[in-house]
């Protein structure tokens, strides 16, 4: 039987689209379970249906249908109110501005400038392993200012050049060392900076459920610090345990071209710095009486981000505006935009007493928490998030786990919830054992002329468990500091 272009069988996602719609819209007719109300039941099934859509379809389509389902679920008085909550929040417009700026950077060629600069530093030329650290950190920075896919494609291309000079054989452990490290740091760069979407949503979920919020600066410092520690751990493990031999990678022989930045690229770096400052300063001086800080807090993250975009669209560089909205359409990640709009809204309902989700989760997990210390529960969550992220979208896994643990916060005593949220977030981003883990892994595993699937997967899984273990250690360190700061 042939399948024409218009044949329904061609759309292999049709089954999942039907399943998503049924879960999102028809679950309201199911009787409530546990302590959940009718609204709580609908919220849960909207979320379940959307997560299934994220896994099997994409991030955008299920998020849009999820917003419509929220609008008619009874969670809001009207569809107007639902759309205002999803698309009119400060968080969502901060997401919009950050996505727009990152889309521009991805088109600007700034990635090559960053790579050339860092890999030509004197320190990076001290030894092959130090060079590899700067190589990985360069991928982190490129992913941080653009996208993880751009970072991994650029640096695999650069690695191919130096691997050819070093005469590395196909399938050698050395290739897997470089590609696993690049995958790890590209994901860190996509997930950990404060203006990246998943970090914005993480802070929104945590801060909406606690009295003492976690600031953008605190999240950024622990995110960046954690990624550096995990990267160094990976390098030391591969050098001293896996015995990776990089003797053929002489930094003086493997020349990487240094590119001088254009005026537009230099200006773009300044704007990125300003963006980070705008995200950090209001949270530090939230109670200041100075007019400038009062104004920044009045505008909020979303207003500040939009003003930055306006300036970029208005101030000319070489006779034309730095940012042209019309040319950014292809690079703008609409799927992530709609995902953020949906998840930041629905996550606010999970811990509300009137929907009964927290009470139901508490009842279901109560027997487990009675026989298991709370800290062990958190440790298991860190490892489980890493394992599941190899099969499912790591951002989705991280946010679902963090939402669940925040919903259980009133029944989990003796742990620091801020430290737990960040540790789970770090652990879920250490999944590099399978190509299904994230788009970056799909790219690394596709380089079959460099790596063998078995070797790449083996090193990826071992690395994942070691990184998750370091994330556990990071939890205890963070818990001490957050407890001292009065952040639960």
Explained architecture:
The longest helix is centred in the C-terminal third of the chain and has 33 residues. Helices cover 68% and strands 1% of the residues. Helix 9 packs antiparallel against helix 11. It has a two-stranded antiparallel ribbon. It has a domain of 237 residues. The chain has 20 helices and two strands. 48% of the residues are buried. The protein has 488 residues and is mainly α. The N terminus is likely disordered. Strand 1 and strand 2 form a beta hairpin.
Provide a quick synopsis of the model.
By secondary structure, this protein is an all-alpha fold. The protein contains 20 helices and two strands. The chain has helices spanning 14-26, 38-56, 60-71, 79-87, 90-108, 110-118, 128-145, 148-166, 173-191, 197-207, 216-240, 263-284, 291-314, 334-350, 357-371, 374-389, 394-407, 417-428, 439-445, 453-485, and strands at 316-317, 320-321.
